[in-house]
Amino acid sequence: MTRARRKIHHPGLGLGVVLAVLATACATLPPPVELMDRAQSEIRAARSAGAASTAPEVLAEAERRLAAAQQFSADGDNGNATDKAEEAEAAAATARARAEVARLDRQIDQQTSVNANLQADLERREAAAAAAQQAVTAPPPASGSSSGSGSVTLPSIQLGQPATPAPAASAAPPASAASAGTHDSGDQS
Asked: Is residue 189 pLDDT above 50, yes or no?
């Protein structure tokens, strides 16, 4: 007669074996030295980008996670050390990105200010050009006016072009002494 073997199935026994294998695998992982070095380098990059002032909480979190990774590694728990080193690197990258966003926001604000100043300057120049053009095209004053002896022709103004002086020949001649004496003729009677 052959004897039949009975299989014994115990649910806790299989789970215990799996956990033991996983624990052994985690204990045999090499220390995540390269990963911790990358996290440290990312933290330095975040600091140099200005994260200490723009994202201090996130930078501090990255440093805490790196310290935890180093402690886990020292304790021989390389699985948790790896996890914490990855988290530290990600937090440092976030801090560096926030610092970069803050730097770009400052640049945008500065450029917006420069643009506003240029726009205001352009509007002032356009207003001055319009006023000068209106003065040139305005009708001459009435002949009975006591102002000057003739009209002066001004050159047109074009934005973006250097101003050219009017030729000397087109300027009105100075008032003669004879015409200057006629203004005082009322006092000599």
From this structure: no
